Amino acid sequence: MERRLLQKIESFLKETRMAPTAFGRAAVRDPRLVADLRAGREPGSRIICRAEHFMNIWSADLREDRLCPQTASRDDRR
Question: N or C: fewer beta carbons within 10 Å in the chain?
Answer without folding.
Answer: C
